[in-house]
Design a protein that fits this description.
The chain is mainly alpha-helical. It is built from seven helices and no strands.
Amino acid sequence: MSKFIPLISSGIAGPLGVLHLPRLWQKSSLAARGKLHDDYPGCGKGYDQMVLDGLGINKVEFESYITSAKPTYPQLEAWILEKKGGSLDQTAVATLNSAIAGYNHTDETRTSILSACNVADTGKIKDAINLNNLDDWQAFHKEELA
């Protein structure tokens, strides 16, 4: 069975406007079917938990829904809206998105990712979204294209 490296960026939002939610859906959906690459958590502690906390969604309930319903992405967003009474608190979404976009990895993590990608560390790439993108693309190349 093939296992997949998620390539949806944390910097992508779906129609609800929540950054990282499409990636969380993809990773959790793949994990629920045993198809997520072993180096990735289906629903981890970082951005994944930030999104769930920011939306006020229980992790166990979220994972159960993904496993049992196998929703499309629009179905997931509809489920979230239903759980939240039909709308999201836009101030909470803006706060969450700002936290995701503004998160920087440690210097050690940045140096490790850039080194593995053979990218000079000029100090310009600090945000976790772009570093994680580089890390994902490098892993994809190594696993699937090399």
